[in-house]
Design brief:
This protein is of the alpha/beta class. It is built from 14 helices and 13 strands. The strands form two sheets. The protein has an eight-stranded mixed beta sheet with strand order 8-9-7-10-6-11-12-13, sandwiched between helices. The chain binds adenosine-5'-diphosphate and magnesium ion.
Length: 377
């Protein structure tokens, strides 16, 4: 079992956040799983991510909210007010940045060594596209790549055993490797080792459970997907579920398991219409406050990203531009480059999906009944 302390970082100055994050990540014994800029974001991150440690500027900590994880107070200047706030909040230690950074790394590492067993609970993100061809597979695979770029462990599960094309889009081998079929007899007692052995590792570092042979696809049941998701969620930081277009029992199970549901859409009437229909199917199963939108293949068109807000009540989490290189890359089982416009859009999306639900800058507000239900833009 990996002994890496999962840390939520709450500091005011963005440049210090950046420095501390890189320093802790490089230390190898801690990983920043979320950042927060105020006490509300911090409280939400703690509730949802159950970190081992909170490294925070004392003025951002509401003592009532930090229960469970160890609190390590960090500030760039020592002041009486800051120390008092640290003590009030029950901080284990108070460190000055950058002078005490080695002590901070040691204290952070210790939170997991002394913490005993602890089920890692990954952020589970479901990616769904209501209209065929909007780029569900493209978004799922490139979001996974962006998650890995943030130094987070990512496992991708394809909830479409028959037509799911994640493996092909990632250039996974088609022979002599484990597939989901090997795990089906074990799903009720799935250990981390079983799962780890069955996963295929992409050159980027993301791991993928390969799909069954077509004649075995029907053997994968919703309960199996739930068990696999739960097992994956204890073994990594982010689980990405690639959903079938039909919200069939497997698709619904995936939505039920997800912390965030990403609806991929393109700027055309039929995509808006299909998305509206998907929302009407998803809202009754309680997914409303977990849904975010991604505009893919974005280009000049009569319909604009602002129409996403107009129709669905929230801004898109990200807009991914149209790029003529995508089809060719996908056909060759390759990802698009990890730098450039596309990568930046996915970096933003990865940051958005890691943000605690309910604290988003825009797209994480609850989605009500679609305002223009069946009509589209
Ligand atoms: N942002 C984009 N720019 C250009 N082409 C794209 C983009 N996203 C997806 N495509 C292409 O559109 C087609 C459908 O994408 P895909 O991810 O397979 O969609 P889905 O899984 O929803 O059916 C593919 O040929 C893909 O390469
Ligand atoms: Mg697809």
């Amino acid at each position: 079992v990996e002994q890496v302390a999962r840390v939520v970082l709450a500091l005011e100055a963005p440049d210090v956040v950046e420095e501390v994050m890189h320093f802790l990540d490089r230390s190898g014994s801690a990983r920043v799983v979320a950042t927060a800029q105020d006490d509300r974001q911090l409280a939400a991150a703690i509730r949802q991510l159950e970190p081992d440690a909170v490294v925070a500027q004392p003025s951002l900590v509401n003592p009532a909210e930090v229960r469970g994880p160890s609190l390590l107070a960090l500030d760039t200047r020592e002041s009486v007010a800051s120390l008092r706030a640290a003590i009030e909040a029950g901080a284990h230690g108070f460190y000055l940045w950058p002078a005490d950074r080695d002590a901070l790394a040691g204290a952070t590492a210790a939170t997991v060594l002394s913490g005993g067993s602890h089920d890692r609970r990954a952020r589970v993100v479901a990616v769904h596209g209501a209209r065929g061809g909007v780029g569900t597979t493209f978004v799922a695979t490139h979001l996974a790549a962006a998650v890995v770029r943030r130094d987070l462990d990512c496992v991708v599960l394809d909830a479409d055993p028959l037509y799911g094309d994640v493996a092909a889009a990632l250039g996974a081998p088609t022979q002599e490797v484990h597939t989901v079929t090997d795990l089906l007899p074990l799903v009720d007692e799935l250990s981390d080792e079983h799962l780890a052995e069955a996963l295929w590792t992409h050159p980027s570092g993301m791991r993928l459970l390969l799909p069954p042979a077509p004649e075995q696809a029907a053997a994968v049941r919703a309960e199996d997907l739930r068990s696999l998701t739960a097992a994956a969620a204890t073994a990594c930081d982010v689980v990405i579920l690639h959903l079938p277009r039909a919200l069939d029992p497997l698709g619904r199970a995936a939505v039920a398991e997800a912390d965030r549901v990403i609806e991929v859409l393109s700027l055309d009437v039929l995509s808006f219409r299909a998305t509206t229909r998907a929302l009407e199917a998803l809202l009754p199963i309680g997914a409303g406050d977990r849904i975010g939108f991604v505009v893919n293949r974005s280009m000049r068109s009569e319909i604009t990203p602002a129409d996403v807000h107009r129709v669905f009540g929230v801004d898109p989490l990200a807009q991914v531009p149209f790029d003529r290189g995508v089809a060719r890359a996908q056909d060759h089982g390759r990802l698009m480059p990890s730098r450039g416009r596309l990568a930046r859009a996915f970096d933003r999306l990865a940051a958005e999906v890691m943000r605690p639900v309910g604290t988003g800058s825009d797209g994480s507000a609850p989605v009500g009944a679609p305002t223009a239900a069946a009509a589209g833009p």
